[in-house]
Write a structure and sequence with these properties.
By secondary structure, this protein is mainly alpha-helical. Helices cover 38% and strands 6% of the residues. It folds into two domains: 275 residues, Serine Threonine Protein Phosphatase 5, Tetratricopeptide repeat (Alpha Horseshoe); 173 residues, no CATH class. The protein contains 24 helices and twelve strands. The strands form six sheets. The chain has a two-stranded antiparallel ribbon with strand order 1-10. The chain has a two-stranded antiparallel ribbon with strand order 2-3. A two-stranded antiparallel sheet has the order 4-7. A hairpin with a 3-residue loop joins strand 8 and strand 9. Its main location: membrane. It comes from Mucilaginibacter ginsenosidivorax.
């Protein structure tokens, strides 16, 4: 373990023990009497710096991340009070959000959320006291200020994505502030985004280009991380949810001030495109590039086909310092591989209650992925879309992906490599789990309760019969004991930045050549042809890429495929205003209690989601509005 990581963990523990349940409305900041001690020297001040990072680390628990839990890419099996984690995030798509007790509440720090106002206040305390340590060098002080401004910006940005217009905590209230002074009003969405960007612009010049001392500082913010986040912030600000959204055209605060712009500003897309290109340039200048090399751990007999699949898996699960594509991740490991790996050995069944394999992938998520021709399965002229649920027997030609001689769904054949790298399905090859030779590789057996991966109990049943294979390290082993080889969930990687740039460029300029350049970089790594060539040769709608609207649809789908299960789709679908459409249809899986292939491959509804216009933004807890009469509730709640 790295020494700075130990420090950070210690600070997190101390913060959790000492921070009271007071909210941002408090007149007196926490720990006033200890501030002199906290900044008496460089070492103590560094500990306080890590306390500013602490909330960021806590936010990386994916089950409390709206981008992960509310996207419906993965669904959880039941509404029981699970002893593994707080499942309120997954349950939100069931319509269980309330104003009295909001789920994953980052405004107040309840139900899985962290109190971001407290996090921002700690950042302000750091900035207010940074001059006190007499042994802090000027260069280090400049860097720390930049880091804290980045963190302050990110915490504000996270709240904007959830709540829209927010209270900007530019400075902390003085100790003697009156009750009226602490009751602050929300700024408009445009003001909120502008403040975040201004903080990032102040931070970026003083951040290090790279982390030189990886043994002690890995995970701290760099210039290319901040530039990439700025690109995402500006793209979010330009997106339909926040840019002239007619659903919020009349949303005002209690003084009559409009909190959303009444018309869309096309220039926001140009600003976003420019920021994306600048971030790409900086990332590539620091040596970042797409992950294209097979895993470094030696394996036995492995075909070139399977090596490509393993490369696509390892770009998520490889060690951060070995991954040239990873822009940003956090020290908190993924931690849920016992939910993503199916049981594949006789001995593993004894661990079903502890490692339940219950992160379930709906059919709709699996059907996002393209055919091997690089177009959607319902558009490919050569793909038998109508009969995709019909059983078909695996053969040697597909032996790197599907067990030869085993019946699986016809729709599992002739799919793109990302499908096989991302989805664990009945009959699908699962390389790893202790066997590093393709000739003896495991395959998933999921049909019926007698199958190894089939239903075992209410709490140990994968309700769709498919697993997020992408979130399992191939070196992890689920057998008589469970041994997880941990990894850091990406927060941003270069492929996502490429697609963000393609999106912003298409929105600002239409389908120009450079848009295709950056989409096709990502597709090429997945073994696919370029967008125009693929649609021209195989799609029933060959002209789709030639219009802004058609290309927008392609880019959105490409992001959903490339970044699937990475905690991005929940945010993307919200900012695009497409989540309501995704959740307007029943969520389905296979008929998991059936052992016969013909009966198993009959879609069954597992959840009827509940999502309306109001759900695009989180509600503010009713009690907060009662306390602060300058606040009003978000629309439709």
């Amino acid at each position: 373990m790295k020494s700075s990581y130990y420090k950070l963990i210690c600070v997190i523990v101390l913060c959790s023990m000492s921070l009271s349940c007071k909210k941002y409305l408090d007149v007196t900041p926490d720990n006033v009497g200890t501030l002199e001690y906290a900044f008496r020297n460089r070492n103590e001040a560094e500990n306080y710096l890590f306390s500013c990072y602490a909330t960021m680390t806590q936010m990386n628990n994916v089950v409390n991340d709206p981008g992960f839990a509310t996207s419906s890419e993965i669904v959880y099996p039941n509404t029981l009070n699970d002893h593994y984690f707080n499942e309120v995030g997954f349950n939100m798509i069931r319509g269980l959000q309330t104003t009295a007790n909001p789920s994953i509440n980052y405004w107040d720090g309840t139900n899985g959320g962290s109190n971001l106002f407290q996090a921002i206040r700690r950042c302000n305390i750091m900035l207010e006291n940074i001059d006190k340590p007499i042994d802090l060098s000027a260069s280090e002080k400049k860097r720390w200020i930049a880091e804290v401004k980045f963190l302050k910006a990110y915490y504000h940005y996270y709240m904007i994505r959830m709540y829209g217009p927010i209270i900007l905590i530019k400075t902390n209230n003085p100790v003697n502030a009156s009750t009226a002074d602490v009751k602050r009003s929300r700024s408009s969405v445009d003001e909120s985004f502008a403040y975040v960007v201004s903080l990032l612009d102040e931070a970026i010049p003083d951040l290090p280009p790279v982390i030189e001392s990886q043994a002690t500082e890995f995970g701290r913010i760099t210039k290319f991380i901040a530039m990439s986040v700025k690109a995402e912030v500006l793209t979010t600000a330009a997106s339909p949810l926040f840019n002239g959204n007619p659903d919020y055209a009349n949303f005002k605060d209690n003084t009559g001030k409009l909190l959303f712009s009444s018309s869309a500003d096309a220039n926001k897309w140009k600003l976003a495109a420019d920021a994306c290109k600048a971030a790409i340039t900086e990332c590539e200048a620091q040596g970042l590039h797409l992950y294209t090399t097979p895993p470094t751990v030696s394996v036995g007999n492995v075909s070139d086909k399977l090596k490509k699949v393993l490369t696509l898996q390892a770009m998520i699960t490889d060690k951060w310092e070995q991954n040239p594509e990873l822009i940003w991740a956090l020290n908190y490991g993924f931690g849920y591989q016992g939910f993503t790996i199916p049981r594949m050995t006789d001995k593993s069944e004894s661990l079903a209650s502890t490692y339940p394999s219950t992160f379930a992938v709906p059919i709709a998520t699996a059907e996002l992925y393209y055919t091997s021709n690089g177009v959607p399965i319902n558009e490919d002229k050569t793909f038998d879309y109508t009969n995709r649920y019909t059983p078909q027997t695996g053969d040697d030609a597909n032996g790197s992906y599907i067990k030869s001689g085993y019946q699986t769904a016809k729709g599992h054949f002739n799919r793109e490599l990302r499908f096989y790298a991302s989805i664990g399905f009945d009959g699908g090859i699962w390389f790893g789990n202790g066997k590093l030779d393709e000739s003896s590789a495991y395959y998933v057996q999921a049909r019926g309760p007698y199958a190894l991966a089939g239903p075992k109990s209410l709490s140990a049943t994968n309700i769709t019969g498919m697993w997020p294979k992408k979130l399992a390290n191939y070196l992890s082993v689920y057998d008589e004991v469970f041994t997880a080889v941990d990894f850091h969930m990406p927060r941003m990687r270069l492929a996502g930045l490429y697609l963000l740039y393609a999106e912003a460029l298409n929105e600002s300029q239409g389908p120009v050549a450079e848009v295709f350049t950056y989409i096709d970089k990502v597709r090429a790594r997945a073994g696919l042809g370029g967008v125009q060539a693929s649609w021209g040769s195989y799609s029933k709608t060959p002209d789709k890429p030639n219009t802004k609207d058609g290309l927008r649809e392609i880019i959105h789908r490409e992001r959903r495929i490339e970044l699937c299960f990475e905690g991005q789709a929940g945010w993307d679908l919200r900012r695009w205003k497409e989540l309501q459409d995704v959740l307007s249809r029943p969520i389905q899986g296979w008929n998991v209690n059936e052992g016969d292939a013909a009966n198993y491959y009959r879609p069954q509804t597992v959840i009827i989601p509940v999502f309306g216009i109001k759900d695009y933004l989180w509600p503010i807890q009713t009690s907060d509005i009662v306390v602060d009469n300058n606040l009003n509730q978000n629309p439709y709640w």
